[in-house]
Amino acid sequence: MASNNVSVGKWEVVKKGKKSSSSVGGKNPTDKKSGGGRKALGESNQPARMPVKMSETLYDGFEKMGKKQNKEQVPPPAEPQNKKPSTKPSKKSHSSNTVTPATHKTLEEAFKDLDVGDLKQQLARSQTLFPENPSVWVKDLAGYLNLNLTGPETEPTLSSYAHDYPYCLIGKELKGVIKGLIGRCSDILPDFFDHCVYTMLRELDRQSGEPLHGYRVCIQAILQDKPRIATQNLPEYLELLRSVQNRPVKCLTIMWALGQAGFYDLSQGLRVWLGIMLPVLGVKSLSSYAIAYLERLLLLHANLTKGFGIMGPKEFFPLLDFAFMPKNALSSSLQEQLRRQYPRLKVLAFGAKPESTLHTYLPSFLSRATPHCPDDMKRELLHSMTECLCVDVQSLGVWRQLYIKHLPQSSLLLDHLLKSWRNLPPKLRKNLEETVQSFRVTNEEMRDTVESQDLQECNNLCQNLQVKMRGHGFPWSKLLMVLLVFVAGFIAHDVRSHGSFTDSTAARYLRNSGVTAVSQQAWSKITVYSKQGFSWMETNTPHYYSECVRVLGPLMEQGLEKAKTAAIFISENTTHFILWVKEKTPLVIEWVNTNTPDSVFQVLAYLKELLILLHQNYILPALAYMSELLQRAWTNLQDSCNGEVSVSCLQGHALSFTNSTWQLLQHTTSAIKTWAQELLTRA
């Protein structure tokens, strides 16, 4: 592109003999080796670089470029009067005026003023001159966009904007141009992505502080279709991030660029977060954005199944420590923010098949569950270990292997299982029998060689658990219910046999034992005191009522006013919420229809057909059969009532049913009484 410096650049190259002319002609050995010798727009004075080692040549090349500019690019000297006027300065001045863009107050205005037709011409010219060098095309695109999008530069993470800002401001025509060119240059997109990132970092070193919106747009356009590009060189980017760790703006720029992949692919976003942001989570200037990015990522992707398989124990437990361990590198607010995301991170870590993976998490859970760990962390660890034991059967075997080396932790877990025994699933209760028995055997073997309080506690807890396993205790409640039913039946039979309660055997026993006299005396006292209480209430209630009205009346009026205000506030917010739901529901439905696989709709169709089949072949015949049975029962009832169903007939049927039931109860009671008398006689 050096041949075009006369018409495009802002400086005029001073010719210094053959060496100078060779630099102007652009036909140096480096250009020949690079296969084109032409550089993108805005990079006319940059040395050529090999596409494979982009990160290395960019920094070296731009340092050389700065030195070269200081030596060769100087303002044009005053021309002698006897020299003929040349047309080059006029062309230079004209091109300088056209390249320099106007500064816009907002980025929206910059996008509106962008001349898409001129961009198409520039790209067409680039493709015509260099048809076999697509890297030049995309660099021209990035340079043109960054040169003309001159809106004010914001903070590097763009956290106050939408996740796809500034790409969301692009018009349809410009988006088509960018997508079309990127689609034609798919083979060199990884190099182009690296070029955009490193160019942004280089621009941050300049004092001019030019905006970087054009490169941001190109990065988002690349990762929207191919998010895997961002995760191809994560180790190199992590090394670069650590090398500029004392420059927070550069670090945040790298994190923002790589993080754009996660907004279009959850798995790639998790790889970026675990590979780039988790290693620097303890850095004060970077932790806030790292956690905010994770929160936005998990909020944007409601379906977590696409992120399964990315996170394992190696990545999960540092997050557990950051979320629950006090006095770590995170502030309390950031720790609370990370803790809110912990349940979803836990789901991602356990994956699609927790029944076969949770046993790999149990050792780390168990080693952290010390008696001195924080209460919140202890509850989470015990809950997680119980989940491992419930879901993955192999966790019990892992626990048996770790039991001897982790006696204090095992004591905590055994105590938790004992306290929550009623809430444990039956499958775990059954599987724990063999494990607890093996612990008892191990305790007996260790008792002669090791004497510790933890061993004694584990032994006691194992004994208590075995007691729980062997039985649930004596059923006192059921026995009491049976006795009450038996006593009630005996008294009812006694009263019916003697005609009244006064003549019954039970009343005679109560009179002879003195219970009746005591009961009558107690009832008389209750009656007297009740009358005195009612008379006191009749006398004093009006006075106390007036006092309550005087004292509580103003308070109740104030409470009523506040209740009215609260009702109005709730009504207004409810109205706004209903409007919001009406507005967002179509979008949610559209999103569900777009992201739901076709197999789900097929399953729903099959389910609909199954329900129709059940309704036609089973439910309708069953209803018809029940209707026929009811009709037969009604016919039999009419026949038993001589053709007319009346109240007297129904009373007769009810009486006969009651008599037969009572006779059955009498026979059963007499049989039980006879059996009891025989037992007493034998005794």
What does this structure look like?
The chain is mostly helical. It is 71% helix and 1% strand. The protein contains 28 helices and 2 strands. A two-stranded antiparallel ribbon has the order 1-2. Helix 8 runs antiparallel to helix 9, helix 10 runs antiparallel to helix 11 and helix 22 packs antiparallel against helix 23. It is elongated and about 120 Å long. The chain starts with a helix and ends with a helix. The N terminus is likely disordered.
Mean pLDDT: 81
Tell me the structural class. mainly alpha
β-strand number: 2
Largest sheet: 2 strands, antiparallel
Helix content estimate: over 70%
Report how far apart the termini are: 120 Å
Number of helices: 28
Compute the gyration radius: what is it? 43 Å
Q: Which overall shape is indicated by the principal axes computed on the Cα atoms?
A: elongated
Quick summary of this structure?
With 683 residues, this protein is mostly helical.
List the helices and strands and how they pair.
Elements: H1 5-8, E1 12-13, H2 17-25, H3 29-34, H4 54-72, E2 73-74, H5 88-99, H6 107-113, H7 116-129, H8 134-148, H9 172-184, H10 189-204, H11 213-225, H12 234-243, H13 248-259, H14 266-277, H15 284-300, H16 313-324, H17 332-350, H18 362-368, H19 375-391, H20 394-402, H21 407-419, H22 426-447, H23 453-470, H24 476-498, H25 505-513, H26 515-595, H27 598-640, H28 647-682
Antiparallel strand pairs: 1-2
Helix pairs in contact: 4-10, 7-8, 8-9, 8-10, 8-11, 10-11, 10-13, 13-15, 14-15, 15-17, 16-17, 18-19, 21-23, 22-23
